[in-house]
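Q: Can someone sanity-check these two? First one:
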Amino acid sequence: MRKYVLFCLLHLCISGCAGQSRHNDYLHQQVSQAINKAIAYFEGQNTGIREPDVVILLYLLKEHFGVQMYLPDLELMRKLKPELSTFNIMLYNRYFDDRKVPSLGDSMALEYIRKNNHTIDGMNFWSMYCNRYPLADTVLLQLKRHVYRGHYYMTHAAMQLSNMLRLGCLQETPEVEKLKALMVKELLFEITTDLTDVSNDLRYESVAMLYYLGADTAVTREHIQWIVDTQMPDGGWNAYPRTKNSHPHPSVLALWALLEYQDAQKNKND
């Protein structure tokens, strides 16, 4: 009797593991197909993308993940899109030209930080150049305030903290770990809330930020399956559940999250 029970348990375990493996393989296949459709969507947009941050992210994703995706020459994009020459985007030229210093002089950059460190853009800039312009002692408190403001303040705070850690401007202290745990909790809340007026854009960004924050294990199969299932027929994603048209901003965020998932799976198998 005892042997029979053990046999049944072993059989259930093997069957369950095999079933899980099949589910994983199917999800991997779905993710790969969704990524290919998204790439086709953006290639179809060509120079029609008007949002500078979408352009920035597309170039970054192509470079970081080695995505085979045609993007127009950056100089052509700049000529066609005056938005890419604005002061705000000049601050972020590390994404394009040189990866070490901003396009502003030090005095102008420091003045910008002083006046804008309470804003998302100001903190983004500071986090990208914190090894050049040292952080204030109150920066963790400022990040925490942004987390509690929620929504895009919260997701960008996660990105900013990640930048600061990657550049060595902050160390993995207990205080930082506590802040990271708070961010993970709030990001997961943003993803799983059932409120219909919460934007898909914010949810996709939250998943991408979990990966960027190094909280890969917090991202579940259900999160990735939801992103795959909400892809529109044209290969993009919509900004809100009730809208019927794809939009480049949520689309690039969803693509980012799926590329992170695919990359994590490849690393597991290597």
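And here is the second, same format, sequence then tokens:
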Amino acid sequence: EGEGPIVVKAAGLAAGKGVIVCADREEAKRNVTAIMDDRRFGEAGDTVVIEEMLTGEEASILAITDGRVLLPLVPSQDHKPVGEGDTGPNTGGMGAYAPAPVITPEVMEKIERQILKPVLGAMVDRGIDYRGVIYAGLMIDGEGEPRVVEFNCRFGDPEAQVVFPLIKGDFGQALFDAASGSLSPGSLDVADGAAVCVVLASGGYPDAYEKGFPIDGLDEASADDLVVFHAGTTEADPVPVTAGGRVLGVTAIGGSIQGAVDRAYEGVSSITFQGMYYQSEGGEMPVAAILMGSESDRPTMEKAEKVLEEFGVEFETAVISAHRNPDRLTSFVKEAPGRGIRVFICGAGLAAALPGAVAAHTELPVIGVPLEAALNGLDSLLSIVQMPPGVPVACVGVNNSRNAAYLAISIVALEDAGIAAAWHRFREDQRA
């Protein structure tokens, strides 16, 4: 029902490429025809599932179990679309990073309580002695609520390439314990920092592509903080050759996600093969965070999103109430520098506690947007400008999220030459 985005999915196994997000019913009809009549995915498309499109941020949770005890691993996030900026058809995954910042400790507790444990409990109730991996592909909405996209019984690819390098404990022993029914509660030690994987694919993937091209530079890409995972390769003399759509996964470990991104692309720059394709933006992290206390604030705050998009500034958006979700807000803000955030834009009405609560937990600049709710927004404006000494919050006009975005851009421009040039051109045009 309705005309909104619709998901068309081949019910069979389609190598991670059988899900198509359609803008409307007509596009959905065309793709159903392509799957069922034109046999785009072969037998996998004998049955088609039509689903609601979930909105939010994706995350992957891998856990091992011995049938009674669950041991979740580091949460991760992969990038399915083949094109830059999450465009183009879905693939098996063009890259991934871990840990996924969207999975705060509070969200992880919900996932275990609402999803993982009930699934394991249901198998126990049915007499199924399941020992192995539970893979949960999730969508986390703006309120931090997890919804299930898919389950699987194997480690995800390329998620495993960023999860495994961060495990410090004896992972082999944990797997043995799971298989033998003696897994201990608790968690494996996790290394500090982050891991990022960039997938190198054959030209044309996920559609038709050629194979057999020599791969050069693998030795140069090897280092203590770099791992090259082989996916679609075959041994040959003198060097391996391409033998699949996704050829290699270059994984880097760094002190932060952005540090791992930079190191991964250094590794990528050493490798060459004919037709090599990868997402140059696949691992870029947001530098601005837009926060609001309620979904009703979104129409106003979307104006800030549009301004940031015009300048090419990467950002993330979250709905977190300072009153209803104080613990989640604290975790979100404290973890922000590690995932690349450089400035916060906070929209709030009435008592307008959100900007001050954010500023209390970060040394990054915070820009408050007073939202009109009562007294024409004067109450929220006064609340924001009267922060105590040492907890500074910049304040723009009532509902003026666009100006908040412009101020955020000027802050980001201090460290980004490309954004600085765009900002300079914008101001020059204004003065002309």
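A (reply): Looked at the second one. The CA atoms of residues 170 and 248 lie 26 Å apart. The first helix runs from residue 25 to 36.
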